[in-house]
Description:
seven-stranded parallel beta sheet, binds NADP nicotinamide-adenine-dinucleotide phosphate, Dihydrodipicolinate Reductase, domain 2
Amino acid sequence: MEREVKVVIYGMGEIGKRVVRALSEKKGVKVVGAIDIAESKIGKDVGELAGLDRKLGVVVSPNVDKVLGETKPDVVIHMTQSYFKKVFPQLVKIVEYGANVVSTCEELSYPYIVDENLAKKLDSLAKEHGVTILGTGINPGFLMDTLVITLTGACVKVNKIKVTRVINASTRREPFQRKIGAGLSVEEFNDRIKKKIISGHVGLEQSIALIASALGWKLDKIVVEDVKPVVAEKEIKTDFLVVKPGQVAGLMQIAKGIAEGEEKIILDFRAFVGASEEYDAIEIDGLPPINEKIVPCVHGDWGTVAMVINSIPKVINAPPGLKTMKDLPVPSATPVDLRVCLKS
Ligand SMILES: NC(=O)c1ccc[n+]([C@@H]2O[C@H](COP(=O)([O-])OP(=O)(O)OC[C@H]3O[C@@H](n4cnc5c(N)ncnc54)[C@H](OP(=O)(O)O)[C@@H]3O)[C@@H](O)[C@H]2O)c1
């Protein structure tokens, strides 16, 4: 493509703002529109909202038809919500305007296990309009699935897979520390889980299904265990809060893919303040066995931004339809000028 790739930002939250900042350092790509429903963002210039020291001349609007109709983007970077059925109408509209989609919606990373018919409908619609849709991000999207799938490429045989992600929330933003329940009593934590104020990690099921699908494994079931509190044994101070011994430092959640009574895929996700080590570990029981450990764990926000931006050329180059990360070429960083990676 000779001209710049036109991008619309759909969801100017924490990730959307970072995407705008990262895109401002790229060439061959231009933010031409922005959509968000938050009152605090509507009417603001995207550059200022994203924390750039300049205006981009693009103002946030809640009017999807107006933005997509007037700007005719090549790609919409969609970052609003986590659940497939909630974002489905948003995705349909984007597709009907003839734009490709890269979305951070967790369940879109493997929507077939949420609602197979709806996923197939979206796939058909995308093909009809000649566009590609991808759900991606750091997790789900990479660390606990695509990276695992890639590593199994060096195995003749795979028996079992275990993936552990431990995040030291002390190094993260205050909203993240609050979101995982740091500083609450165990009773308060359990109450918030019951009221769905704390939701745990969305996407473990998708990561398991994505791995199983890539390996051709037929799972009998995917079990996602309840979110549990990680309780502090000693006092932990962060820049934002203090956790006393016996209070909640964060959360953990385990999910398992089971076939013929055997636990074939185990994902163990933990995020808590005061973690002595933060890492991403992948253990593949296979021939040969593979043990990979990334220390410190990959930063979730920037990792997500990278996955999104680096997916833009791959999505534009891909054949139309609803794709998952296993359907596209190996993830890779993009050069400064995104157009270098475009086929035509
Ligand atoms: N796959 C991954 O690895 C990964 C990583 C990070 C984030 N995520 C997901 O990506 C999404 C964005 O993350 P974030 O941290 O940027 O979230 P965020 O800060 O909550 O931002 C989302 C923004 O989208 C707006 N929004 C919500 N529904 C909308 C709609 N129907 N139309 C237009 N705008 C809408 C929100 O407005 P209100 O505030 O008014 O609702 C908010 O401004 C979340 O669902 C998050 O869970 C996935």
